[in-house]
Amino acid sequence: MEDTRERLKIAQETLTNFEDAMTSIADETSLEREIRSLMAAVDSDLARASGLKRQVESAIAEFKRIQAETSPYAKMLAETQEAIEKLVADRTGEVAKMSEVERRLSVANLAVEVLGTSGVRAHILDHVTPILNDRTGHYLGQLSEGEITATWQTISATKAGELRDKFAIHVTNTKGAKSFGGLSGGEKRKVRIATAMALQDLVATRSAKSLPLFIFDEIDHALDSNGLERLMSIMKEKATKSGTVLVISHNDLNHYISDAITVVKEHGLSRIED
Known about the structure:
- By secondary structure, this protein is of the alpha+beta class.
- The chain has six helices and six strands.
- The chain has helices at 2-21, 25-68, 74-115, 120-144, 185-206, 225-242, and strands at 148-157, 163-173, 213-217, 244-248, 262-266, 269-273.
- α6 links the parallel β3 (213-217) and β4 (244-248).
- α1 (2-21) packs antiparallel against α2 (25-68).
- The N and C termini lie far apart (147 Å).
């Protein structure tokens, strides 16, 4: 635009000079051509300036239109922001849940430790094991004449030789068998009777109010005459020290027990014989 104004100024000055001079036709013609050329250049510059103005105005209008439009990513951005906020809230909730789970796990681990093999259970077993071994040895020594020993243990060896916390009874026979499985039927019965009576004695000592009554159902099963005689000797000992002993058996024990009741079952009915 400045260039155009400059050319217009020159054209006007030229025209003024022409009018003042008017010296010759040739000069006039030359000046006229010069003026017309300058005027054409001015018109061209004005046209170009007008076109540029229209382009600028169009660009401004397009800019305003775009500026006024809603961004196509606005909804996406809002949804993404909402998703992020939800994830943060969920994570906060999960962290709270995890803290609660960790707390409960800690309590559970403590309970396992207290109630497990190395906790209260081990303490109790370590306390009662000597008593069980003493009473089992007392009864089994009489029943087997000292040939069989049974030891209560709180630790056992695995097949691989590793030690594990396990409550078990180790049985040996001085005449051969090194385990409970190697004993005869009568010998196994003696071990069972001895350990059962040892447990019975332990329970009796722990009871707040002891009941002076001992009931043995078919305790004489699988015992030979010598074993039965020794067992009856133990029964008399218990009756003398602890109270009443009641023995239930399918065999005739009148030779060992003076006070006996015979019950006969016939046709689905039971009766007591005189």
